[in-house]
């Protein structure tokens, strides 16, 4: 849908009106036959039709193009009232800047920011409403530190709230202690497995060293026996030499 023509100041050229809704073009598109439409209007039309609503020439989505630049410039220069005029806004600005103004307009109806509150309030009155809103939150005046809503004032009990908070903290602490305990047990088990594995490796290395030492001792004994045998043979040869 387009912009309500009643909002505009002065004359609006016929060529700047949507051929479907007959209001001033909003987010315009143009057909090859040069008839212009609001994007929402022509998209809705082409769901059920395949021609131009003005001259019945065949068109489809792919044939639609942005508005000619000179027409777009004429459209943007049009002057219109803010949509919040009925609430008291007297701003008149160009179509090109109307969206920016209305996003910030002090007369815009906006929802209360307090959870649970359904009131729509003018932006300029929001602070005053928040100060008295029954859904506003505030800290307990008795010093318990609990945040309460005005609607809950009569139900708020500092002792009960603090007891609940204490129980929650206690439960959280127990959970954290259990998590820390499990984590430490897991680390100890991992370290224990690692130490057992290292002990097994060291034991195997010790057994291997013992085996190597045993072989070396056997070799040494063999060498000593061979040396004695060799010495005896030399002594025998020396004796025979003397006898000769």
UniProtKB/TrEMBL annotation:
Domain TRAF-type: 101-144
Stretches of the chain forming a coiled coil according to its record: 163-243
One GO-annotated biological process of the protein: regulation of canonical NF-kappaB signal transduction
Molecular function GO terms recorded: ligase activity; zinc ion binding
SMART domains for the chain: RING
SUPFAM superfamilies, alphabetized: RING/U-box (SSF57850), TRAF domain-like (SSF49599)
UniProt domain RING-type: residue ranges: 18-56
Keyword Transcription among UniProt keywords: no
Gene3D superfamilies: Zinc/RING finger domain, C3HC4 (zinc finger)
Keyword terms: Coiled coil, Ligase, Metal-binding, Zinc, Zinc-finger
ZnF TRAF-type: positions: 101-144
Protein name as catalogued: RNF41 ligase
Protein species of origin: Hippolais icterina (icterine warbler)
The organism's taxonomic lineage, starting at the top: Eukaryota, Metazoa, Chordata, Craniata, Vertebrata
Gene that this polypeptide is encoded by: Rnf41
């Amino acid at each position: 849908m387009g912009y309500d023509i009643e909002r505009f100041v002065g004359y609006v050229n016929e060529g700047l009106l949507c051929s479907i809704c007959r209001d001033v073009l909003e987010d315009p598109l143009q057909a090859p036959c040069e008839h212009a439409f609001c994007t929402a209007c022509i998209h809705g039309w082409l769901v059920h039709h395949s021609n131009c609503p003005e001259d019945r020439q065949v068109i489809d989505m792919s044939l639609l193009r942005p508005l000619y630049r000179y027409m777009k410039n004429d459209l943007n220069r049009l002057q219109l009232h803010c949509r919040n005029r009925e609430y008291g806004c007297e701003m008149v600005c160009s179509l090109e800047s109307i969206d920016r103004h209305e996003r910030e307009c002090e007369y815009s109806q906006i929802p209360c920011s307090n959870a649970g509150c359904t009131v729509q309030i003018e932006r300029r009155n929001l602070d005053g409403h928040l100060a008295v809103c029954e859904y506003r939150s505030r800290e307990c005046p008795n010093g318990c530190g609990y945040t309460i809503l005005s609607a809950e004032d009569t139900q708020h009990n500092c002792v009960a709230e603090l007891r609940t908070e204490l129980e929650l903290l206690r439960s959280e602490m127990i959970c954290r202690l259990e998590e820390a305990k499990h984590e430490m047990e897991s680390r100890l088990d991992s370290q224990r497995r690692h130490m057992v594995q290292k002990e097994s490796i060291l034991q195997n290395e010790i057994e291997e060293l013992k085996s190597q030492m045993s072989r070396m001792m056997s070799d040494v004994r063999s060498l000593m026996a061979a040396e004695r045998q060799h010495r005896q043979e030399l002594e025998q040869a020396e004796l025979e030499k003397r006898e000769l």
